[in-house]
Here is the input.
Amino acid sequence: MIRATSSILTLVFTFSLALQESRADWPQFRGPTGNGHIGKMSHPLEWSSEKNVAWSQSIPGGGWSSPIVVGDRVFVTAAVDPDNTKPMGFAGGVRNMRGQKPETSLDFKLLCLNLADGKILWETSLAQEKPKYPIHPSNTYATESPTSDGKHVFCYFAAIGEVAAVDMDGKVAWKTNIGSFPSGNGFGTGSSLALYGDQLFVQCDNDKSSFVVALNKQDGKEAWKKERSSTTSWSTPFLWKRGEGTDLVICGSGTVTGYDPATGDQRWRLTDVSTAFTASPTSDGERIFFGNSGPMSQGPLIALGPSIDGTTKLDMNDPPEGVAWAQLRAGPGMASPVVSGDYLYVCSRGILCCYNGKTGERVYKSRLPRCKSITASCWADDEHIFLLDEAGKTFVIKAGPEFEIVGTNQMDDLFWSTAAVTDGALLLRGAEKLYCIRAPQP
Here is the structure.
């Protein structure tokens, strides 16, 4: 009897673990590994405003931060003003407009939603403050995506310098302020948080006093801080597993630097990398890929291998040791690239390019038909590449060396946020609402 009871308990425990492991959290910008790859696809391949939308929920104020998923909960941040102001898109003719500072204080919030039905479970106000600096009408004061270790959600509002930890019930564990700074061309901020071990990393590249700082996730106290020569960049810190170690990779204006996450010591630095970064890196498990582009020109696309070391000056004609390959005028626009299988996919100005990840050979270059500006980062499974334009059209591209549009999916909203994916569900944040794409339950 004791043996039978023990066997039953073992089965229950094993089944419980299997259930826990089957639920795929999406705990940060671009997913668990920060590279936008979702493994085996479980969300629907087709959707529209009328098809496979399990629920939609209005989100107050403005925010381009990506949603994150922890268990059965979805978290998003927002900055709310009395007029419930929403961002505008480039398609609305605001590309050349200049921003203005808000006239009133904003309420900076973290919202928690039920993944099953989209119901808002709680809202926590983290600050009520009037930002010092303006932003472009297309940007928001809540563009930095949160991250989570499963126990707390960590939020960052660069517009006011506030970093905070909130538990799963909405209680604030700690808050700290790292300062707010002017951004390049008054566009505003956008670098999201990264988490590794017990440290939370904040990249604050700005036009006054740039730095990267590591905060202890338990209490928000500074673990280390390194000043940077970079001016404004909007890239998010990336944890690159290089050989047997892990580097904290920061892309700044003209430089890319690998730091020791534990100490902040510089391990390597690549210089002469053109302009500032809007897109974030990605990796295929061996190499790391990144690139940049300016408003009027397309910068380089670069692949680094695990042998990168010391300070290296980029030479496009003769790539130095550690640079696996480099391509001129091939960098991404605002959308971060993604890897699927042996290929790297880069989108800029409505054109999708596919490269051999190992050699850098361009396999194809094809225009996406009737495509609007793409700001949301790409995501991919083993068979498809997904690109979401600001007008709500998602292009589904077959993975592999030949360009083939498998389908297009249209939603009615304005989209700049990068998608979040969990088992069976795709979360898309528009300017007005958060949408859950999921096949009907039998």
Observations:
- Confidence is low (pLDDT under 50) at residues 1-22.
